[in-house]
Every structure is written in structure tokens, then in C-alpha cells.
Fold these 4 entries.
Entry 1:
Amino acid sequence: MKRLFIALLPFLLISCSASIKSSFTSQNKPLTIEDKVAFLDIQNKVPENAKKMGEAIYGDSGFSTNCDFNTNLISARNLARANGANIVKVIKKTTPDSWSSCYRITVEFYFYEGDVTQLPQYQLQIN
């Protein structure tokens, strides 16, 4: 019984997070933890000379528990850094409802040559 539990533990842990589907049309050198990544919410505009690199959809896996808006954005930031993007732009956002306790979001990833800290952007709420 203990071996069965240990064997199933990774699947149980994975199923507790949001489902993520991503695709990138281009990649840059990965960013470091010191490199800033801007979060642009729906109302924030992407700079004209930013280059689109890809997109991701964050959904509900059915057993998701760790899928609030900020947690999804932190995951998107990690995905952006791994692919060399420094802007995460939310293009669609569905709030939790009676069908799902998760935020479902669609984001686009961009690379911008300028200073992303100067862009009007969403500030993560860290609890």
C-alpha cells in the first residue's frame, strides 16, 4: 500500500495545479532571476516594437487548487523567463465561478528591448 501511494504521489501533486498549454514561435536566451518581467493586464497596452514570442492558456485540470490569478502569473513569469520573454500580457481572463474555482487566463509572451519597469503594469499581490 505504501509503495502504491508513493507511486501515485507525483500524479496527485501534478493534478493540483492549473493545466497549462503553451506554444512559442521563437525563443531567446533564457532570462536570469534578476531580469525583470512585466505583467500587462487586459487594459495595459503592449509596446509597439515588442516582438511576440508565444502564448499560453492556463485552465482547470479538474482537481486544481493552486490556480488563483497571481499563482498563474508567477507560473507564466517562469515560462517567460525560460523562453527569453520579458513581457507577459493577459489577453483573456475568466474569474472563478460555479463551474471552476480557478482563474482561467490566456497570456501572450513578448520580448521588449526597452526598460520593462517603465511600462504601466499589474503588480503581483504576494500574500
Entry 2:
Amino acid sequence: MSNTNFKKRILAVDDTAVVLTRILYTLQDAYDVITINSGERALKYLKENKPDLILLDIRMSPMDGIETLQSIRTMEGREDIPVIMLTGVEDRDIVLKSAKLGIGDYIRKPFSSEELIKRIRRVFDQENQKQAEKEQKQAEEERKQVKDDE
């Protein structure tokens, strides 16, 4: 497969089938979308796979989105995956708790397809910017090292 056909992989985790179907329908043309209906199953999937982004519902049971995110942040090689939290309620404490765990954004349900796409693009743009800054810093350090060695 050539790079021009490469689709970023998004893991959507929600215990509501209608929401997962809507996410899949909205994103499937532009992204490789994996849908999973529980936090536990998401963690099992993440042991073997690393998506480019996770859409994670806050209100799920028995393991809610915050617990799932806490577990993701402790998984080696998975701790840096950008996450957008999905929520059906406005709960300031939960939003603050998830922000402390390093979410890229959060979206209030019900959401429009356009809003979902816009938020995903914004998070990917932020990730691309971070990567570019990291590479630039690395190149500067290498140049400094070469100069110091001369």
C-alpha cells in the first residue's frame, strides 16, 4: 500500500451502538475506524494495536471513560495516543479530570458530523505540530553536538 492511500486509524469507544454507527458512517471515507463498545475491550485491543486517535465516551459501564483513559495512560507505547472524550452531560469535574489526563479535546453529544470532523482535524493538526517541533529540536541538538565535536 502506498503512502497516498494511508488512512489514519481511529478507535471509537462507546457503549451505545447508535453512536458508534454514526461515528463509523461519518468517518469511514477519510479514516480507518475501529468501533468497540466497552472500555475493557478497548484496553484489550490496545495491547496489540496503536491507533492514531481515540474517541472515548465518558459514561460507560462497568468501566467508564475516565478509568479507561487512566489505564491507557499507563500502557507502554500507548500513553501518548491523542484522545477526544465524548460526553452526553456537562460535568465540569469530569472534563477537568480528563483534561489532567491529557485529552486533546472533548465533544458534547449529540454532535454534528461537521463538528466531529473539525475536532478530529484540529487534534491531528496539534499532533503534527508537536511532531514537527520535536524533530526541529532534535535537529538543533544534533547540529549543536556536531559543532561541539569540532
Entry 3:
Amino acid sequence: MSETTREMMSEATGQAMRDTGEATSRKQRMQQDGFNWVTAIAMGLFHVGAIAALFFFTWKALFVAIFLWWISGSLGIGMSYHRLLTHRGYKTPKWVEYFLTWCATLALEGGPIFWVATHRIHHQFSDEEGDPHSPIDGKWWAHMGWILTGKSMHHDTTTLARYVPDLTKDKVHVWLTKYHWTGNIVVGVILYALGGLPWLLWGVFARVVVGLHATWMVNSVTHLWGSRRFATKDLSTNNGLVAFLTFGEGWHNNHHAHPVSARHGLTWYEIDMNWYGIWILKKLGRARQVYKIDLNNLPPKPALVRDVEAAELLAAAAAGND
């Protein structure tokens, strides 16, 4: 499926949901559901652990944390949850897809099914009513308020059927979603056995907290501050600092203009570690149909088509151009 077809589907589905009234303010719905105490307590404990890590600093513990930050943030969130599962910007053998997805669970951002559903909804209603985490509802809300209130990461079955039919039919992704928290327990036990409390605090608590805030900055900061190469209908910008902290996800305006592209950094100076990882997979024969944008050969924008079935949204894999 080409990017043009996907964008037409996305526009059509969004319009259909607006016409039927389904795109009501998710912030209002979440606030009605109340404060999410389980998530808040868990996040609070991890932040306490991250602060405690400062009193148990060792260089080895820091390097372990940086390595696992790359594993969870680049191989996991950037290459798997975002560019592979959400946008299908490239294809891999299933074992590679599952391994990268497991890496993403180490970021503690939820299981693949709920993460992907939330992000597809974000693209459907970016910076409009229905966007789960837009700064138009407040900077704090966009950063982490949306996580602490309601059921933003635990959608109902109707929503999941519409936005992630491709993943809900996959038993491995269902399992990884149900038990997404187990990876950090396994990693934590191994780190404690190898390096004691410093490795545990830095390799799990500090690493998770930094990774969470880096990802949340994509939702908040890149929709507030940065440069805009493309005149998108939302507030997305390119932000070099966020790109550095997220291995390339901060080239957000590029991404919103061409969401299927597996490459977000479009020039030599837009460092995109996640793209480099996908490129290496391709060279190793483990990635195919890799769709990427060339600034010198941009695809035309599609016209709005209103009669596409909502359930078809992003369900099929993208046809590659590389």
C-alpha cells in the first residue's frame, strides 16, 4: 500500500469519525474516567528510583543504562513500535519483528497493541479534538497528564478493532501486550546479579524515566518549539534536541508530513539513529519494502476521499519503494 493510499484512508477515516461524533474530546473522556492511581504510583516509584540512582553512581552502571536506553528506545520504540508496527514503513521477518517489539516493552510505555492504537489515533486527529496528547489541551497534559488520567493506554475493544486489527489478530503481540512489564523484571534481576544495586537503579529505574520523558517530549515539545519544513495541518516541528534524546524521533514535522517514511531525518545533518538501524537491517537482508522519502522527489498530496472503511486504517503493510 502506497503512502498516497494510506493518507487518503487516514483522512477519510478521520472525517467519518468527525461526522459521526466519535471524535469528541478524549481529554474530556479521560477526565471523566478519573485519576489513574496505579499508573501514577508506578511512575512515582520509578522517579524515586531514578533519583536514588544519583547516589549510587558508577561509570559501569551509567554505560549499562545507556546501552539499554538504546535497546529500548531505538531498537524498541523508534524502530519497532513506531516505524514498523504503527506505520508499517518497512517489513521484517516475524522473529525480527517480535524481538524488536520485546525490546520496546523495556521502555515501559505499555504493550504494542495499546501503544500503536494511541499513536494511530494521534495521527488521525493530530492537534484537533480527539488527539490523546496535544498541547492545545495544555503543555503538562501533552507531556504526561494524559497518561495519569483515564484510560488513554487501555482502549476498549471497539477502538482496538478499528485501529489495530493487524496486531489484535497476532497471538504473540497479544501476549507481549498482556505481559509487557515482565521484560524489566527479567532485566532487573540480571542487572542486580551482575552489578548489584547501582546497575539495577541505573539500568532500570533511571533508564526508564529518562526514556519516558524523552518520548513524552515528542508529544509535547515537538508540537510547541522547533522548525517546520512542511506546512502540515498540525503543530508538528523538527526539534534537534528531542531527536538526539529519541534517536531520531524528534524530526517530527518531517514525520507528520510523510508518516509512512521509515526515514525521518531527511538531510545529512538530521541525525536519525533509528533510520540507520533500519538501513543496517536492510543491508543484512532482514528488512524489505523499506519506504523512505527523498526531498528531491516528494510524492504528491492525495485528495480527500470520504468513503473508505474505518476498519481498513493502517491494517495492511505498506508497499515498499526500496
Entry 4:
Amino acid sequence: MAIGIPNFPRRESGSFRKVVDAFLSREGLAFAEILSASRIERIFQKHGGLFGCHGVYTTAIMVWSFLSQVLRDGKEASCQAAVARVVSYCEVQGIASPTEDTGDYCRARAKLSEAALHTLSGEVAEERSTSSDTLQLQARWANGVESCWGSGQLLRSR
């Protein structure tokens, strides 16, 4: 039985789900547009958790795909779907794509440092809470959706 987080919108929350769906509707790895590889690498290096520097499953790709995976439901949350998103991202970026084998993905995902993820989320939250420009970091998308990391929320325009 799942335990809910007090004062946190349930996954089924209509407005939250709509925002997440709009954000995740992009091809490939949506978080790659708003969370830089250099920031991820710096933080994971600090925690001794940097990996995959010369492979397909780099630390940054794994953070982006992991975040994308945990925000999805059902079959879209599977490792197979996550690998497909990584393949799509790699093809768009013109870099080597992984095989469809989910084993490599799952082993790389297991290398993600919990401490580094905690530091990463804390740094982003702190940056947003002290930003003077209305607490926004925007990535404009062709479909009219903006992702804004302000107070840890994604906001939908239109």
C-alpha cells in the first residue's frame, strides 16, 4: 500500500497530471532542456558518483531519463520505455544510441548517487528561491508550453 506525502498533490491530481503530461510530451528527454549536463557532472563528481563519461549512459543522460521515468505512469514508466526515450534523444543529438537491452540501462540507473541527486535538487531549489527574475528558468517549446522551475513547480501557459 502506497503512503501519501502530506500536503503534496496526488499523482492523479488533474492539474498536476496535465502539467506533467505537457512537459513530458516532448521527444526524447525533456529534462535535458532545463537541467544542464555540466551542473549534473559537477555535482556527481563532487560526490564521487560520475560515471559513463565515454559511454552511452552518461551520468547526465541517466539523471534526465530517471526523472522522466519516475514522472510517468504505467507502461511509460517501464525501463523499456525509458531506453526508447534515450535512443530517441541520442538520435536527435547525433550521438551513439544504446541497444534496446534494458539491462545496461538498469545497471547505469543503479549507479545514480542518492546523495548527489539530493544535492542537485537542493541546489536547483535554492537557486530558484533566491532568483530575482520572478523565480523562473524557462525552456520554450514549439507547442506553447513553458517549463518553469519556480518554487519547484512546472507551469503551463496558454
